[in-house]
Every structure is written in C-alpha cells, then in structure tokens.
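Quick start: load a record and inspect it. Here is Phospho-sugar mutase:
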Amino acid sequence: MDSILATAQSWLTDFFDADTKKEVQDLIDNNTEELKERFYKDLEFGTGGMRGVMGVGTNRINKYTLGKNTQGLSNYLKKTYPGEEIKVVIAYDCRHNSDTLAKTVSEVFSANGIKVFLFSELRTTPELSFSVRHLGCHAGIVLTASHNPPEYNGYKVYWTDGGQIVPPQDGEIIAEINALSFEDINFNADNNLIQLIDKDVDEIFFDASVDRGNFNAKNKDNFSIVFTSLHGTSITAIPEVLKRAGYKNVTIIEEQAKPDGAFPTVESPNPEEPEALAMAIAKAEEIGADMVVGTDPDSDRLGIAVRNLEGEMELLNGNQTMVLMTKFLLDQHQKQGFQGNEFIASTIVSTPMMQELGKAYGVEYKNALTGFKWIGKMIKDFSDSKFIGGGEESFGFMVGDFVRDKDAVTSTLLACEIATDAKANGSSFYQELINCYVQFGFYKEKLISLTKKGISGAEEIKQMLKDFKDNPVDSVQGSKVLWIEDYNTSVAKNVQTGEEKPIDLPKSNVLIYETEDGTRIAARPSGTEPKVKFYISTNAQLEKAEDYKSVNSQLEAKLEGIQSELNL
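Running the structure step on this input writes:
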C-alpha cells in the first residue's frame, strides 16, 4: 500500500491540473479501496490496444495516461523515421470524452513536431485503418473501447501498413512509454500541424468498401434490411455504403441511430449479445424484414440475425457468419481462377471449420493468435500472397486487405450480398449455412465468458487458468484428450503418445485441449476486459440438410454437457 500511496501522491504536483489533484487527494483521504484500484498498476496494451475505465489514476484512461502513451509513441516515431516529416491520423468513436481525448492526443503529437490529420467528427475504426495508408501516414490512433461498458475508453495504435502494432514495434513503443515520467509529456500544441479531415476521406473509403463488398446480387429491391448502429459510429458509414451498393429497402432503428456514449437503449453495445439487437429484431418481425445487422460502437464487429427454417429471426454467431462469408469470397475467387498464392485466415479459438474450407478449395489457411492485429501482420509478412478474407469468432471479419482490421462496414455489405443472392436463387442465408455444414462438416461452438473485476478478479482469473493447466482433464464427454496445446510454452503435446510439436506462434496465455473426436476447449484471459473466456467447439457429420435439426440438437446437448462437466 505504501508504493500505491506514493504513486498517488506523485499526482499532487503542479504538473497535474487542479481537478485531478483535488480528486486524488479526496481518494487518499476518504477511499482507500478505490485509490488502490486506480493506482495499483499501469494500464497495459492487450489484444486490442489499451482499454480501461475512465478516471484519475495510472490504472485509468485519462489525459495523462494517454498523453504519456502519445509522448512515448512520438519519441519512437522520431527515432524510427529520422529526418522525415512524420504524419499520423486520429479518429474517435461515440464514447464519453472520446472527442476531448482525441484532441489531447493530437496536441501532444503536434507539440512534438508531428503532422496530425484529425477527423472532425466521430468515424469508424475501419475508416481509420484505411486512412493510414490512404494519407501516407506513419501511424494512426483511434480512441475507442469497442463494445466495453460506457465507463470505458481506449487507445488503439496502428502502424504504417494500417494494421495494429505487433512485435517488435509494440514492445519497443511500450519501452519508450515506460521510460517516461508524466512530467515528460509535452502538451504545448502547435495548431498549425493539426489538420481536420472528413468528407474527402469518407468518399474514397465508401467507394473502396463498395468496390470490395458489392458482388451485384440480383433483386436488391426485394431484400429488406433492418440496421442498428447501437448508438455508435457505423451510422456515419453503413447506410451510405448500402445505398451506393443499390440497397433501398433499409430500415434504420432511429432510437439507436444517434451516437451516445451512454448507450441508453441497451445493457451492452455488443452485437454478440442477443439483447443488444432485440429492438432491431422486433422491428424486423414487425415489417417482415429478411435480415438484421447491428454493429458495435466503433464499427469493427457486426452481429447478424436472419430467418431460420421456421421463419423466425435468429442471431448467428461470429463463427457462422465468418464461415459463410469466407466461402462466398472463395467461390468468387474460384470463378476468376485461383493464382495459387491466396490464403484465408482465422484464430486459434475460432471454428476449425475455417481450416476445412481451405482444404476443400485448395487455398492455404493461416492460423493466428486471438486479435485481428495478428491477421494484419500475416498480410504484411506474406506480402507476395493474396488475402481473400477471414475473421474470428468474436463477430469480426475482414474482406481483402484494403482495411487491416475488423471491418463491419464492408462486411455488412458482403453479408447483405450473400443473403440477397441466396434469396434470388430460392435459398436463404440460413439455408446456405446448412449447406456448408453438409459440405464441410457441422461445427458448432459455444463461448463461456466470466467477468472478474478489480485486483481480486485479476487474481481469480490467474488462478482459474492455472488450475485449468495444472489439473488437465483426461476425457471430455467420453472422448479421450489427445493433444494439449500450451501457447505459454509454445509446445503441443500428444498425451497418448508423448509426442511433442512446437507451436510456431508468439507466446500467449492460452491453453487448448483437443480430444479424439475433434472437440476443442480453449481457455484464455481477455486482452481487453476483466474476463476469462472458455471456447468450446464440437462437430459431427451432417449427411443431408434435412437432418440439420436433429444433429444440431445433438451438438447443442453435447456443448451443454461439456460446460457442466467442466463446472463452467
């Protein structure tokens, strides 16, 4: 506690503004537990950059923690690109304080002689990623906490390729930041170096999205879409992109169309949660729409609901939409003729069905750690190869490589094209998914996410993962465990034969069990939230589409059994 108190007292110097000092002193005098939470550690970069609760303290998002990040990044950029005119682009989402924090970040960059392109109003994360390369910038920043609760904000850093920072840049940048004290931050803005941008960049991004996501599906006038931005940034892009692609029958949920960091109509602005899309689904039922699309606050994730075999709206999961979108893109490339250098990609906790797609089409499948920054890194590392598309189970997808992060804008258009094309041919999005299961195997997944907040929560997560590793299970639902993949040690071990294989990915706190029948169970801490996550995947053969309901019920029961068996 003495070190925590000393850290807090260091925020009482004249460098910090009066409101900050007053709040810190009040915590010291009246709220020891809250003081601990705010100052017991520094916020860290995770799979999606730096995210945290807003407020005063080293473990909070505020002008000083983000200012220090920006000062460290400025120092790193100047060392990396000596003698060049360094340029960065900055965007921000709908969250409380995102605009003021973006202004602060801009000012620190400018104070360090760096040219800044700052979006004049909120914009999507995919447009920010696109803009890095379009504007010839050395880096990009987006102020967002994605789908986290309203009290959060965050800071994502993009490199010259438009992808998020990855090794070695991330470690080197963090080292620069950690070498600084808060007093090293230069807040003296040079406003001549800050240029506001908006419609000119929008136009080029919209055209690029339509170019990549539009496949000229027939009968678009006969396809009805309900769209909700969940109070986020996608309202600035998706309606216009759909319009340019020829969709006229789009109903926007007006109650959720206005950007609002309080997210007043939902418990969580996360399209993974059925409740988040409840208002849109109700509207779809009312008007008989074909599809519902909802996006998270920074518009990198999308949730899709379509009509199932009973004609009811059903929310699909990220694995399902990823599989069908990837198959559709593979089909389009196959028509043009594969060149032999194409690849698709996903992550180690996503459905194994993606690998089966690659095999079936004779296209390389690349596997990455969780987080789209690793897929972006693949595109950069294998620049002679062509990235067709890919995603991860957490409702993210990327169409080609013109954006180097999850892109709900172009992916929304792609999903609409697939569904419209299917309807025009007497099928449906849902039916086409079932056809995939017949062709490539029926894979069904379940995510169990447990929230553990604060210092005690972090310890609890650490212990749960330790127990999962130290007490390995022998079998799952009667199927013997065959492989244990430990990404902390980079070793996969066959527990039946003793064979060991290296895992050719960066070390990560992930453990995966795979059984003889292909069931996979992965465990990892979230990189952006106080959560521990368990991913379960199982599979079966689906001989014909007519058997879908019975086989689906069997897999559902198996997933429930696994969850119960593991006491999750």
